Amino acid sequence: MTWSSARTRRIRPLLGTFVEIRLDPGGRGDGPGDIDAAFAEIEAVHRLMSWHEPGSDVSRLNREAAHHPVRVDARTWNVLCLAREMSEASRGLFDVTVEPWLRRFGILPGEVGDELFAATRGDYRDIELLSGRRVRFTRPLRLCLDGIAKGYAVDRAVECLRGRGARAGAVNAGGDLRVFGPRPQPLHLRDPRDACRLLPLPPLRNEAAATSAACFARSGTNCNPILDPRSKAPAPARSVTVIARRCAVADALTKVVALLPKPGGCLERFNARALVLEPETAAPA
Amino acid sequence: MPGRLVHIVLPVAAIAAVPAAVLGAQYLTVEQAQKSAFPEADRFVPLPLRLTPQQAESVTKATGLRVRDPQLRLWIAMKDSRILGHVFVDEVLGKHEFITYALAVSPAGGVLAVEILDYRESYGGEVRDPQWLRQFAGKTASAPLKLDDDIRNISGATLSCRHVTDGVKRLLATHDLVVRAH
Fold first, then answer.
1. Do residues B156 and B26 make contact, with C-beta atoms less than 8 angstroms apart?
2. Which residues 86-125 of B are in CB contact (within 8 Å) with A?
3. pLDDT band at A3 (very low <50, low <70, confident <90, very high)
C-alpha cells in the first residue's frame, strides 16, 4: 500500500557533512521508517570506516594490521575490494594508503611521528585481502577510506530504500549523491568559483554523481586535498564531477580524474562520464 | 575520451552580483521532530529557561563556544510521570546558511537524535547561459523532463555542518550544567 502522496525529505549531520534523503510518493513501505533505516545504514558506514573514530575498522587496521591479520565487517571488506580494483584500474592513481601524506600536509589532523614515516613507503599493494574477511599489511601502512566511503554510504542508503519498496528518491551526502526512480532528475553543480551559484547539468536517471572538493583559490595556493600517490603533490586545482551507476565508484573516480584528466580506460571500464572544470590561468606577472 | 569526458575552462573573473535567493526546505516541524525522537511520549512539557549571564559563561567556559541567545527552546518528553528525555530546538547562522535543528537528549545527557528542521542557503542564482548548456548537447537524458523547481540535486561540497555540531556541543553542555540540575 502506498504510504503517502507527499514527498518526504530529511536531512541530518553525518559523515562530516549534511546528508539529505528524499523519498518521492508512490512506493510501498512506510516512508519515515524507511528513511530512518537508510540513515542507520549511513551511520553504520561512518562507525566502521571513519578515520576519526578510534573504534572503526579503519582505526583498528591502522593500529594492528601490520602486526597480525584483522577481521573486518563485510561492508569495510566491500570497500577495500573496490578500492583495490580502482587502484589496479588506475595504476595506483587511486590509493587509500596516502594517509600519512594527508597528515603531513595538514589535510588530516595529527602529528607525523616516526611510525608515520615508516608508513610512507608502502602503497595499496601492501594491503593483503585474506580469506574470512581478514586484512593484513605487509609493511607499516596507514589507510584513509574517506575518498570512497562517503559514496559507499550513499549506495547502501539507496539500496536500503529500494529494498524496502521505495519507488523513487535521492540520497545526497554533501554533494556525493545518487538518484533512483523512473524519471530523470535535475542535477546541478556548485560553481567552484562561488559555492552559492549553481551550474545546471544534464539530468540523472538511476545514476550517481560525485564532485571532488577543489577550490579555485585566487591567491594561487593550491588547496586541493587530493594527492598524487606517486609524487605526493596536490592535484591541480580542478573541479571534477564523475557520473556512474554507483556512488562509491563515482567518488573514487573523482580522485583519478582530478590527477589525470585523460584517465586512460578508467571511465570506460566503470562505464562512467566526467566533467572537469579548470580555472583560466592568469598570465604570469 | 570522446563522449565520456567534458573539459571546460572557466574564467575566474569576478562574478557579477545577482539577486540573492534562498535555496532550502523545511524538513520537519518541531512537533514532528519531538514525536520522532520520543515516540512513546504522551506529552512534551515546555521548559523555556533563560540562561543567566553566569550560566551562559559557564557553558562558554566548558565548550569554548559563545552563547548567542540565552533563551532556550526546550521541552521535557514525558510519559505518565516519567521523564524520557529533553528536546532542544536551536538555530545556527553560517556565512551563507541558516539552519534550525532539534536535538534530543537522554536523561543521562547523551545524544539520542539530531534532526534538521529548516535549512536555507543564500543562493546567488542558477547560471542560465545557453553557451554553457551547449557543451552538453546530446548528453541529456532522453525522456522529456519537467523541471521541478523545488528539487535541486546538487553535486559539490555543502557548506560546512560544523556550526550544527558546535551547536550540539553547546546544548549538551547546557543540558549538563543547567537543565539537569533544574
1. no
2. 96, 101, 114-116, 119, 121-125
3. very low
Distance (Å, whole) CA A245 – CA A249: 8
Decide if pLDDT at A235 tops 80.
Answer: no
Q: How far apart are CA B117 and CA B104, in angstroms?
A: 13
Rounded CA separation A228/B24 (Å):
36
Q: How far apart are CA B95 and CA B29, in angstroms?
A: 24
Report the range out of A180-184, A192-196, B92-96 with the highest average pLDDT.
A180-184
Q: Cβ B116–A12 below 8 Å, yes or no?
A: yes
CB contact under 8 A, B139 and A191: no
Give contacts of A278 with chain B, Cβ < 8 Å: 7-10
Count how many residues are written for chain A: 285
Cross-chain Cβ contact B133/A200 below 8 Å: yes
Q: At B97, phi and psi to the nearest 5? A: -130, 150
Tell me which residue in A183, A193, A204 faces B153 most closely, judged by beta carbons. A204
d(CA A42, CA A166): 17
* Relative orientation angle of helices A32-49 and A74-89, to the nearest 10 degrees: 70
Cα B23 to Cα B43: distance, rounded to the nearest angstrom? 34
List the pLDDT tens digit at each of the 182 positions of chain B: 456 888 888 776 555 555 556 667 788 999 999 999 999 999 999 999 999 999 999 999 999 999 999 999 999 999 999 999 999 999 998 777 889 999 999 999 999 999 999 988 876 667 777 777 777 776 665 544 555 556 778 888 776 788 899 999 999 999 999 988 77
What is the pLDDT confidence band of residue A274, given thresholds at 50, 70 and 90? Answer: very high
Q: How far apart are CA A224 and CA A214, in angstroms?
A: 5
- Measuring CA to CA, how many Å separate A231 from each of A27, A127, A265, B98? 49, 20, 22, 41
Please state the three-class secondary structure of chain B as a single string. Answer: CCCCEEEEEECCCCCCCCCCEEEEEECCCHHHHHHHHCCCCCEEEECCCECCHHHHHHHHHHHCCCCCCCECEEEEEEECCEEEEEEEEEEEECCCEEEEEEEEECCCCCEEEEEEEEEEEEECEECCCHHHHHCCCCCCCCCCCCCCCCCCCEECCCCCCHHHHHHHHHHHHHHHHHHCCC
Q: Are B121 and B160 in contact (CB under 8 A)?
A: no
Confidence at residue B17, expressed as pLDDT on a 0 to 100 scale: 53
- The answer to whether residues A27 and A35 touch, using CB atoms and an 8 Å cutoff, is no
Here the cell at position A81 is 575490494
The gap from C-alpha B35 to its chain's centroid, in whole angstroms, comes to 18
Of the candidates B125, B124, B121, B127, the residue with the CA atom closest to the CA atom of residue B160:
B121
Question: Which grid coordinates are listed for A138?
Answer: 605487509
